[in-house]
Amino acid sequence: GDSVTQMEGPVTLSEEAFLTINCTYTATGYPSLFWYVQYPGEGLQLLLKATKADDKGSNKGFEATYRKETTSFHLEKGSVQVSDSAVYFCALSDRDASGNQFYFGTGTSLTVIP
Amino acid sequence: SQTIHQWPATLVQPVGSPLSLECTVEGTSNPNLYWYRQAAGRGLQLLFYSVGIGQISSEVPQNLSASRPQDRQFILSSKKLLLSDSGFYLCAWRRGNGYTFGSGTRLTVV
């Protein structure tokens, strides 16, 4: 079945450091891929998405490229800020009897220190 | 505008007590609605989804139930909470190929 494997945390970085959070997936079809972010005390928010191979999703300085050959969707940011401290979830959406089914990774906690 | 509301934000309940979490959607009709749970150290797990009034599909057998009494209302319930029911519960509304999530309810069963 479909699944998402995400880099375990927690991750602690200094401000302005480079961020990579690895995500790989297993899917039987042609899924869409997502990164969601959960800031402290808030619900999940969509950060970025890519719907087909080689697409690059980007938002707020974050980027991720849909790599079908390596079944990956790694999240990157060139220079993190303290405000980026949150939990990041990689997810895929595939079609099944309910229309679309979502599969989430376990989440990676990021703390950025000044 | 299209929004999703979920309450309460936090809840502390004793073992054996009942549970009712409510989720409502505004600005749309006949939405597909979902309940997810995030347990500590684990990813999000789909609990229930509903494609219409009175239509509930369960993904994981458990101590919980869901109901869809109105088009834009989705309720998560339990008759008797267990310690293992503690977690972060999210209501979600599927919009096209993406989801909009509620703000979540952090449930602690003591």
Helix % of chain B is: under 10%
Distance between the termini of chain B: 38 Å
Strand content of chain A: over 45%
> What's the count of strands of chain B?
11
Mean pLDDT of chain A: 88
**What does the radius of gyration of chain B come to?**
13 Å
Strands of chain A, count: 12
Instruction: Give the uncertain stretches of chain B in residue-range form.
Output: none
**Content-based structural category of chain A:** mainly beta
Radius of gyration of chain A: 14 Å
Using a beta-carbon cutoff below 8 angstroms, give the protein chain pair with the largest interface and the number of residues from each chain: A-B, 24 and 23 residues
Strand proportion of chain B, as a percent range, falls in over 45%
Structural category of chain B: mainly beta
Contiguous uncertain segments of 5+ residues of chain A: none
The largest sheet of chain A, given as strand count, sense and whether it forms a barrel, is: 6 strands, mixed
Oligomer: heterodimer
Overall 3D geometry of chain A?
A: globular
Question: What does this entry look like structurally?
Answer:
- The complex is a heterodimer of chains A (114) and B (110).
- Helices cover 0% and strands 52% of the residues of chain A.
- With 114 residues, chain A is an all-beta fold.
- By secondary structure, chain B is mainly β.
- Chain B has strands at 3-7, 10-13, 19-26, 32-38, 44-52, 55-58, 65-70, 73-78, 87-95, 98-101, 105-109.
- Chain A binds chain B through residues 4, 6, 32, 34, 36, 42-46, 49, 51, 89, 91, 93, 98-102, 104-107, and chain B through 6, 32, 34, 36, 38, 41-44, 46, 49, 51, 57, 90, 94, 97-104.
